[in-house]
Amino acid sequence: MQHEIATPLADRSPTIVVVENLVKRFGGFTALNDVNLTVAKREKIVLCGPSGSGKSTLIRCINHIEKHDGGRIVVDGVELTDRMADINGVRSEVGMVFQSFNLFPHLSVVENCMLAPMKVRGLSRPEARERAMDLLRKVRIHSQADKYPAQLSGGQQQRVAIARALCMQPKIMLFDEPTSALDPEMVKEVLDTMVQLAAEGMTMVCVTHEMGFAREVADRVVFMDQGSIVEEADPETFFRAPRTQRAKGFLNQII
Ligand code: ADP
Ligand code: MG
């Protein structure tokens, strides 16, 4: 006889992020204009488009680093608003990895990974250290745990940044051009880590122009231009037969 496993209702929701009619302005400039995007649990989305098209702004709005001016954003069942009491609660469910690593320079690698779980999740030092070491092992950098960020290569620092985000046990990971500041020989080690994460079922939104990664991992490629989503498709379709002239032009430039 099969028993149904009792899960809270919220955990059965098929979506983790809903963006509806999103508008973001900087002064008189509209950076995002009526953007709609739904991210399903375990889905991997690659977000691409020319520089200035609004990719970073979109994922920064999802993490509430930027406040939006119109429309709705719901993350894990909670709508993001100016008035929300628990923005840190929502933000801690969302892992973010930036182009420029953003590690704390005065903390060792393992301490970088321990800080937020202790402060936000209330883990004890030994618990936080154990979790940090587990995740540093997962990104194969545990042997460098007591070094400082400046003593590591860019690729190693970015893997630490990924481990640090994972230490919060996020429900979704947002990547903003995680390999574009790296020397070419270090790109693969970071992409391999991201591929592994994807294979384990993490929900991911990745801004990247690594089209090999997109083909291998993405369920959906979302192409933005001038603050709008212009086109979305599975990677095979997007690369083989982009519908819009703007996507064709973009692909011609990057491939
Ligand atoms: P992308 O990540 O696709 O390159 P961004 O989201 O960074 O694009 O930027 C989208 C547009 O919004 C650009 O024109 C950029 O100059 C503008 N922008 C982004 N952040 C700010 C800001 N803090 N103040 C003013 N304009 C901004
Ligand atoms: Mg950007």
Question: Which key terms come to mind for this protein?
Answer:
binds magnesium ion; six-stranded mixed β-sheet; 255 residues; disordered N terminus; 10 helices; binds adenosine-5'-diphosphate; Rossmann fold; 10 strands; alpha/beta
Itemize the secondary structure elements and their pairings.
Blueprint (H helix, E strand, L loop, with lengths): L8 H4 L2 E12 L2 E12 L3 E5 L6 H8 L7 E6 L2 E2 L7 H5 L2 E4 L11 H11 L5 H14 L15 H13 L5 E5 L7 H16 L3 E5 L3 H7 L2 E6 L2 E6 L1 H6 L4 H10 L1
Parallel strand pairs: 3-8, 3-9, 6-7, 7-8
Antiparallel strand pairs: 1-2, 1-4, 4-5, 9-10
Helix pairs in contact: 4-5, 4-6, 5-6, 6-7
The chain binds adenosine-5'-diphosphate and magnesium ion.
The site of adenosine-5'-diphosphate has 11 residues, from strand 2 and helix 2.
Describe the structure.
The chain is α/β, with parallel strands linked by helices and 255 residues long. It has a single domain, classed as Rossmann fold, CATH 3.40.50.300. It contains 10 helices and 10 strands. It has a 6-stranded mixed sheet, with helices on both faces. A 4-stranded antiparallel sheet has the order 2-1-4-5, with helices on one face. β1 and β2 form a beta hairpin. α4 packs parallel to α6, α5 crosses α6 and α6 runs parallel beside α7. The protein is globular. The N terminus is likely disordered. Bound molecules: adenosine-5'-diphosphate (ADP) and magnesium ion (MG). Adenosine-5'-diphosphate (ADP) binds next to β2 and α2.
